Amino acid sequence: MSGTLAGWLQIVALVAALALTYRPLGDAIAHVLTTPRHLRAERLVYRLAGVDGDADQRWSAYLRGVLAFSAVSVLFLYGFLRLQSCLPLSLGRPPMPADQSFNTAASFVTNTNWQSYSGESTLGHLVQMAGLAVQNFVSAAVGIAVVAALIRGFTRTGTDRVGNFWVDLTRIVLRVLLPLAFVFAIVLVAGGVIQNFHGVETVPTIAGGHQSVIGGPVASQEVIKELGTNGGGFYNANSSHPFENPNAFTNWLEIYLLLAIAFALPRTFGRMAGDHRQGYAIVAVMALIWAASVAIVTVNELHGVSSRAGHAAGGMAEGKEQRLGVWASALFAAATTLTSTGAIDSAHDSYSPFGGGMTIFNMMLGEIAPGGTGSGLYGMLVLAVIAVFVAGLMVGRTPEYLGKKLRGREMKFASLYILTTPAVVLAGAGLAMARPGERAGMLNPGPHGFSEVLYAFTSAGNNNGSAFAGLSVDTAWYNTVLGLAMLFGRFLPMVFVLALAGSLAGQAPVPVTAGTLPTHRPQFVGLLTAVVLIVVGLTYFPALSLGPLAEGLQ
């Protein structure tokens, strides 16, 4: 079978699998978020936490729950990392330094999973399982909980209540993430991903030498790393390591897992809103952007080289696993940067200028196609609010979306949401370039070196977690500043999303008239897609011009 045919078949199979699970998975999540029935295990959790499972919260109380839970999670994980040498299954690893512990704790609690360390040589098994893997579950659940509150803001009227954060968090973990992770972890083990408690073992090599091999509970962490759009690798090589991703099947499955929930959530939105057409419109925009990104990255990696050697090799083979190839690597790169996953099966730093630039642009979009678990959908819904407002300006009419007026208050929250992440990314990158010591951390000169810095702050501010590499970030300054960028990039947007939810929930419904913009038709899909691209293009174009665009045009 030719590489081209194999590449097309895996894309077709991926689209088919996502289409088949869109409805049942989206409906199941909607049921979890709306049913009044509590499971016995959930009641036990509420009792232990002192939570009233039947109480509804104002948006401000919901936000306090999100922030309090996340703050405790950061402190717990920070302590775990600092006390590692005192814990069982530490494999003799020393405590992680203070600045790196802060960076790692902020990273995993914010669903970023940026890693300035090598996992197999830095962390023991207990910290990997009880520290990092646990945060992979709950940070993903926090994102879904926040988008659930926003959807309730659109669907509820005349109330100041948007749900119960503790109930949403518990249900998402126990009813959605844990069952799916259990099933697919077994599939990964069957596919060759390791799952054991081995420490460092020395094995003979074919050449007659010896090599140290580190085992561990990899499959159980790998599955939630992808399913929860987390991305942190058990090994430094992440999903390019054969113990995490041994073959073409596991590679395809991991791409599916990192897209499945995010692509199903628009169905959840449509079901909770009482109009499935609204969900179809949102997922259509996501699919269009995703397809365009996959095409651009793949074409540039296959044909974006001028040398005969590059064409003879079948594309830009440098930095890619030969057992996976260019097509699978490009598909993974587009998917992981369009979501907040950050897992990698190839070195993005070695991509062609425009191929690598597209991975940066994917994150700059806000990771909304389909985005992270929950964060992708609430980002797209905020952009839908912007799009409806733009349409209202064009016809001279007060904009309405799902029966709610978009007044000045709502537009302020939406505008602050749109401006927050670019401010974090561009300010951080500018500050790094202004400091001689941090510029010295770039291992490449010129536009490519700037792209490495821009990628790092784009990844941190958008809670992606992947890296361009070629940049020395394990310094006190980078660990601290990137850690702050992750925290601001995660929780400031959540503040504005929940404030928007509370403002919308308090409104009375507006009747649909002949002048109401239909938000389920192809025209709105085109408008929303254009708004997404224009907003991002105007915000980041100067920075992109100094980095990947300048490199590609050289």
Write a structural description.
This protein has 554 residues and is mainly alpha-helical. It is 66% helix and 3% strand. It contains 20 helices and 4 strands. It has helices spanning 3-34, 40-49, 59-82, 98-109, 119-122, 125-155, 165-191, 218-227, 248-273, 276-303, 308-312, 325-338, 353-364, 375-395, 408-434, 436-439, 446-461, 476-505, 522-546, 548-553, and strands at residues 200-204, 210-214, 400-401, 404-405. The strands form 2 sheets. A two-stranded antiparallel ribbon has the order 1-2. Strands 3-4 form a two-stranded antiparallel sheet. Helix 12 packs parallel to helix 13 (353-364). The longest helix is centred in the first third of the chain and has 32 residues, at 3-34. The protein is globular, with a radius of gyration of 23 Å. 54% of the residues are buried. The mean pLDDT is 92.
